[in-house]
Design a protein that fits this description.
alpha/beta, 3-stranded antiparallel beta sheet, binds flavin-adenine dinucleotide, FAD/NAD(P)-binding domain
Length: about 220
């Protein structure tokens, strides 16, 4: 769990989830998902509701260029963010693959995309590549639950309620303007105090006219394929 974080933060996340009744199973791949459960290597887990949370992948932009994607379909770029093998084409953010100082491809995170955007903006404005792009890790964070989050700043780490508060502050601060910061802060404070959850409904029938007559889920927990 939270493989990008130090071991003690992964262990904290696991124990937090176990304390609220989640049975955590790791180290096994899901082979198949059916309406009545999931096949996990060596076992079948019966289930009435299955939520699949893995599988974020890059855009298919590499196929537009006719090149193979790397690291989950991302476009390989050099340290000036130029697509390798093409003149005048750049790729940044989640769709690009650039190795960091540790040799691993930089993660698909907002801070990578933002720093690359700033770097490329300067490069294009001046018409020449300044020194190659270097990612500065300003810390990684993940929220686990109510009053529980983790922070990894490299030299020091945080977990628990203080980390959760910092996580919330950072996310509100990074929003684009004062209005959005205020709105989200009020909404989050309201949800925290009332323990209500926001509704997130995925309903593909809206895009499938042949299923228009089917009822649209309004339950806040409904996710329908
Ligand atoms: C659920 C979730 C939670 C996340 N949480 C965090 C987090 O807590 N912290 C963090 O740092 N990062 C987080 N990320 C990752 C972060 O959102 C991405 O790394 C970041 O948004 C990448 O920025 P980007 O500009 O490369 O891509 P995006 O932000 O995805 O922007 C790409 C844009 O291109 C548009 N687009 C796509 N295809 C086309 C097309 N064919 N034509 C025109 N436009 C197109 C899309 O609509 C989108 O607006 C999260 C991602 C997800 C999915």
């Amino acid at each position: 769990m939270l493989a990008a974080f130090p071991d003690h933060l992964s262990a904290y996340a696991k124990s937090y989830l176990e304390n609220i009744g989640v049975e955590v199973r790791t180290g096994k791949r899901v082979i198949d998902i059916r309406a009545d459960g999931a096949h996990i290597e060596g076992a079948f887990v019966p289930a009435g509701l299955i939520m699949w949370g893995a599988g974020v992948k890059a855009s298919p932009a590499h196929s537009w260029l006719g090149i193979p994607g790397v690291a989950g379909g991302r476009i390989p770029v050099d340290d000036c963010l130029r697509v390798i093998g093409f003149d005048g084409i750049y790729a940044i953010g989640d769709t690009s693959a650039l190795a960091g100082s540790d040799g691993k491809v930089l993660p698909g995170l907002a801070q990578v995309a933002k720093q690359q955007g700033t770097y490329l903006g300067k490069t294009l404005r001046t018409g020449r590549a300044v020194a190659g792009f270097q990612f500065k890790n300003r810390g990684n964070t993940a929220v686990i639950g109510r009053n529980a989050a983790v922070f990894d700043f490299g030299k020091w780490t945080l977990k628990g309620r203080v980390a959760w508060l910092l996580w919330a502050l950072v996310h509100v601060y990074l929003l684009i303007n004062f209005e959005k910061r205020l709105l989200v802060a009020i909404q989050w404070a309201g949800r925290y105090l009332t323990r209500q959850r926001g509704a997130r409904i995925i309903d593909e029938t809206a895009e499938r006219p042949e299923h228009k007559d089917q009822p649209i889920a309004t339950d806040s927990a409904a996710v329908r394929r």
